[in-house]
Amino acid sequence: MTYAIDRIEAPLDEGVRDKVYPGAVWAVGTATAIHASGATGVLDPDRPEVRMRPDTVFDAASLTKILAVWSSIGTLWQDGVLDLDAPLGTFWREVTGHPLGAATARQLLTHTAGVPLRAQLKNLYGTDPQAVRDGILHEALHRPPGEAVEYTDRTSLILGYLAEHISGQPLDQLATARIWNPLGMDTTRFGPLPAEIAERCAPTELDQDTDIHLKGVAHDFSARLLGGVCGIAGVFTVLDDLARFLRYMLDASPAPVEAGFGADWTTHSLAIRTGQLQPARGLFWHPAPATSDDEDIWVHYGFTGTGMWLSPAKNQWAVLLTNKLYYTRDRQPLTDIRNRFRELAFG
What we know:
alpha+beta; six-stranded antiparallel beta sheet; three-stranded antiparallel beta sheet; 11 strands; globular
């Protein structure tokens, strides 16, 4: 596999010059190896002498939904202890008799469960973690399950709670023991980060309370409210760890130790599971924008500026990590760069 590295680097370098993000780290490869990678820009504009590096730690944001929740739910499914199509209320006492009890894990994974669209945890439920959990699990639905595809962070929070209920373990311990440790993802962890790891973390948005850019602490407010660990966000990771994860998804056989989920879960997830409803989605993953069914390219993004792509048909993956929130919440400039990067990575 050969890649036009100069062509890949050009739009990423332009993103630094245009202040879409301070810096970026990227890689592309197959099931067997990283075939090309690079870094551009700086870690922190306030310290221009510190360059962005391949081992820079990033706030993964919604990649948490894949790295911790999707993989843990897949582990429980492959263990045979979770039926994706059983109404939650038939086996989960916390939601029995409540509206959420009529929905299924599959509907949560496809964003068709009809749960409320905004998290708003503190405004609705306060700051006590148990009160938040009770509120999320007992809240009225936004619409009947199966009626529409509507992306919402609440689905991953609920699935994180479900994984904890079935496994009897906190989400961070479950993901570490069954996914990250077996795959050798040694840096991937929920925050807040210890000082020695936070030092090489890419800062994100300016915290209005402290007037300091968040670094080693999750940008996502829900994750911070819940102590750093939740299904929505909170994971920090590095390029090499994501490469290990995506390579395993393409081919689990070379892995020294089998992770909790395997090829069956990947195959089951990377297929349209929303029928005729739009936008089309698999299980948490969705087809990359402006790609064809034949290309078979799936993607998941993170709000901080992270993203990863996977194509079983092409036996390829790609990762682009940025800290675009350092400058702005405007999505379009990064969207354009992401789409160009994907075109070059899978072209």
